[in-house]
Amino acid sequence: MRISPPAVYAYDCTTEKAVDIIWDRRLRDCELLSGPVLMLGFAEDTDLLHFKFAFGEDLDFTDEFAFVRPSYRAMVESFLTENEMRSRVTRQDLLAVAFWDTHDKVAFDTELYNSSLQP
Q1: What DSSP character marks residue 28?
Q2: Looking at CB atoms within 10 Å, which of 31, 34, 69, 70 has the fewest?
């Protein structure tokens, strides 16, 4: 099933691993984003709420995490500094993949998660 505009998902894997999966599975309806997605973890609910008020329409959120696309990274880092949140927020760079087809998404996830279970 076609997805328009493409859906973007973040993964905790290397670029090499993602390229191997795309190549091995011959996936044609996906591509790696040029920069990593920054995942922010908020320990304090007040920080998360303040952050959501500032960026809620522009970013994606799940539970206590926010996902920052490369185009927003400088603005977000500036916000965290200005509001003295830097020390209370955890950061992790994740690989971002855009999918135009649900079959490619399922195939990518299956390969990634099956291979991560191997010893």
Answers
A1: -
A2: 34
